[in-house]
What does this fold into?
Amino acid sequence: MSDIARSARRLPRIPPVPLAILVGVVLGGLLVLVSGGNPVEAYTAIVTGALAWDNLPDTLNWAVPLVGMTLVAAIPLRGGMINLGGDGQMVIGGLVAALVPLYIPGPGPLLIVVAILAAMLASGLYATIAAWGETRHGIPMLISSLLLSYPAIGICSYIVGFPLRDTTTGLAQTAMVPEAVRLPVLSGPLNAGLLIMAVVAILVVLYDRFTVGGYELRMRGLNARFAGYGGVPLARQMTGVMFASGAIAGLVGALIVLGSQFRFQDGALLSPGYTWSGLMAALLAGGEPLGAILAGAFFAALQTGGFAMQRETSIPRVLTMVLQSIIILFLAIRHGVGRRRETR
Amino acid sequence: MLDFITPFLVNSAVQAITPLLLAALAGTLCGRVGVFNMALEGQMLVGAFAAVVGSYATGSALGGIAAAMLATVAFSLILAYGVTVFRGDAVVICVGMNLLASGLTAYLLRQMFGVSGTFSDPAIVGLEKIRIAAINGWPVIGWIFSRQTALTWVAWILVAVVTVVMFRTPLGLRLRGVGEDPEAAETMGVDVTRYRIITVLVAGAIVGLAGAQLSLGTVSIFSEDMSAGRGWIAVVAVMLGRNHPLWAALACVLFGFADAFSVRLQGQGLPNQVTDVVPYVVTLVALVLTHTKRRRRQDPTITASP
It folds into this structure.
């Protein structure tokens, strides 16, 4: 660690985030080198795999859920709170979004709206359980939000594994949602989910900058006790923030189900690890929404490039996860990312 | 209800408790010196991976244990120096460490052994189960004490050692002082930073044992993310026990039995998606119960949580 500290002092002009990325790239490169790969080839594959014109739509597609889960983490983080339950909330949203069109009749476009809203409502309400535990019983939300994830995942997995399983296939998944209820395709692999997420992201940024609620949330993040003294209803604020955060997680699940997978498949929403990457991105920006969105998009590019790297150089794409965690650890240690939160 | 308590259930519960107990013990040590260690999950994973590598390379379970302790101590340097010398935020560092552990072990698994998912090989030597012939056939006592790994014994001995050291020795007094009032401890001539670093590293070695029990104890394999939330349950045990090793151990016993019970329920024909949830639900219920009671007594919570 002290070597890193010293080298950082010698390069004072590089701002923290690019420096952290540089450190991640160097350490990751060393890891590749040690394990017998060629770092230059690996990074070339990542960059072209993510940013070449033909691959941009894939990157955007990957960014939709990742930026969504970044917002899920960033909204509470702005107020000094952490929601670790994104996985469970996203799965609930995904399942609800798949079940609504399968079991409720109605015209397609209307059903899309109903399915998405129902998913957001269900996930939002589930997320508020953790907030309620902290405000009423003093159970730290940090841990309860995470623990609540496991039952949610288990129950959803049971539902598609047994009572509502598509018996025509051998897998634990629901039947396909009707074509009329799928999100409209924009072009190629891109669907309307991109637009919906863009609108939500813009709304979150605007809310943060220009509304009283956004101001109060920022104030809480700077000093929760002072905010409470100044008249911010802390308990109600926490419940509201968790509802919003959970609702966006539900939206992410719904967009994946209605936009690309067309059914709820056990484990399919969780395997890409959007929740933790989103949390990393939000932490990177200290919860500031615009920065978090950019960080989320950066991680999405990194991960999309990881697929290309795995294809072309046989270096496993989990390397990108290592890079992400090195970046966040470097920032936390060198530049005190997150130090201002209401921890003490 | 009583017919659920079979020799197998008790024996497997004691096995399931061991990694939780070791991790929770490490958590209480860190908590006592004022470091909230949420990275137990990642540390355990690193330990489990290193144990398999060590056992595979040296052909002995002891080599695996040594490798697990070394690797986890090295990994814990991030936390030890990150929260002290570099004054980083413990929660962010721990989240980063958990992700790093998950990514790094998956990466190394592919690069070193060329497999993804699960690595099993006859060359991995598991921990031997110590069979005590004299009591092996006895009900309950035999089920608990016989056919357990050495690490289970170590874990319970460590609980006693940590408790005595923490509450009955000058060293323990200093450790508790560092956590409760660092400034006062500093005034009394205790090097707070040094105590914290060393404690976090010692705790790291203990979590390494937890990892070794996980990958070499009941099975001799490593699979990606095999800690599967146990580190988080240990974090809850630390919170419930309010950094007291004995109370944390009690919580671990509860969770261990819940875990073994869920396996047993699976044998009764319940789908595993439902039974897997049991330990977490028990954990949540325990959290709710203890906090509701505490609130009624108007007792300020003394957890190391933020």
